[in-house]
Amino acid sequence: MNDPVNDSVNAELQELAESVFADARGAGTGFDAELWKTLDDTGLARLTLPGDAGGSEGTFSDAAVVLAAAGAHAARVPLVETDLLAGWLLHSAGIAVPAGPLTAVAGELEVAGTGVRGELRRVPWARAAAGVVVLTAGHVVLLGPERLTVTDGANLAEEPRDTAVVQGEVAPTAVAALPGGAAEEFRLRAAFGRAQLLAGAARGALAASVRYAGERVQFGRPIGRFQAVQQQLALAAAEVASASAAASAAAAAVTAGGFTAAASRFAVAAAKARTGEAAGAVARIAHQVHGAIGFTREHDLRLTTTRLWAWRDEDGSDAEWNAEIGAAALAAGPDGLWPMVTGSP
Predict the structure, then answer these.
(1) Percent of the chain topping pLDDT 70
(2) Are 197 and 311 contacting, i.e. CB atoms less than 8 angstroms apart?
(3) Where are the domains of the chain?
(4) Rounded CA gap, 301 and 290, in Å?
(5) CA distances (Å), 23 to each of 16, 38, 104, 204, in order?
(6) Is 295 or 130 the better-scoring residue by pLDDT?
(7) Alpha helix locations (H) across 59-168?
(8) Which of 98, 133, 312, 338 has the highest CB neighbour count under 10 A?
């Protein structure tokens, strides 16, 4: 049954998010400080965190709306890392959440009292973060930029994926015991956030392709009027619809039951697998429609397609999550399979 109040709130939130990200869209690389300030001012930067952690107390369905818009417009900000991962992990561990953009990573650190030493690889946005939160064996550690030696790195979309080396002392208030179940929830939260971004990026690539097909004239008419192009765009649209449905189902599941519920784990796995599969198909069709121009650095199509290629392998590939779905289906058995798939009792 539809909830008209919630539908109205989500529509207003989507309108706000689309406006914010569309205004900031650009072909630059690295952290977009101006966009981050806007997100901070509007309460979108820490949407799901509680008020005492500087958050807006939104739902995961709200987060899905914002992240999809961020993906569609190739936003250069660490939204998933700040809100869903670092902020949540710090608050859960009883560590004060600092202001500014944050990032989080599961990694191996040697922790002895307040002494910390180790190397962290492929840390998202480390060079721009006001704090790097590390989930390590038995501990949650907050590292300020002054404690880190950062070597720049990047994924295929030129988003920061840096190497950070730490050796020294941190404040006693920056280290806490790892809460029970936090490691598994961290993994699911990361996959959930990445799935929402993927669904948005697929939508952005499709929109760009439809627009280009209507503008590019060949043999006296727009290429969008040719049946072969229409068929390819229809296939891409089906992939986008499927990815969006899976991502929305995951958002509804975790909003209703949190990340610890079996139904939520299954929904997140399905969302990450399905959006990952859609990423390859949509990117391929988008470049086929655009032809050679779509592969040039000057064209904006690369902003979404390179993210589709990069994100599908981050936070677990579609093959990894499909294997988990298969294991869950076998464990459920003949009588439990249908309730698991449909989310019914």
Answers:
(1) 96
(2) yes
(3) 4-177, 182-342
(4) 9
(5) 11, 11, 27, 15
(6) 130
(7) 60-72, 79, 88-93
(8) 133
Integer Cα distance of 119 and 184 in angstroms: 22
Instruction: Round to whole Å and give the CA distance between 244 and 197.
Output: 10
Q: How far is CA 238 from CA 97, 202, 213, 311, in A?
A: 41, 11, 17, 20
Of the given ranges (12-26, 124-138, 202-216, 240-254), which has the lowest mean pLDDT? 12-26
User: CATH topology for 4-177?
Assistant: Butyryl-Coa Dehydrogenase, subunit A; domain 1 (1.10.540)
Those residues whose C-beta lies under 8 Å from the C-beta of residue 153, and which sit 6 or more positions away, are: 122, 160, 161, 162, 163
Tokens 């990069």 belong to residue? 310
As a CATH number, domain 182-342 is 1.20.140.10
CA-CA distance, 244 to 139, in Å (whole number)? 35
Nearest alpha-carbon partner for 290 in 235, 236, 238, 213: 213
Can you tell me the mean pLDDT for 305-310? 98
Residues in the chain, how many? 345
| 32-46 per-position pLDDT tens digit | 999 999 999 999 999
Amino acid of residue 235? L
The closest alpha carbon to 282, from 250, 243, 320, 319, belongs to 243
Using CA atoms, how far apart are residues 266 and 108, in angstroms rounded to an integer? 28
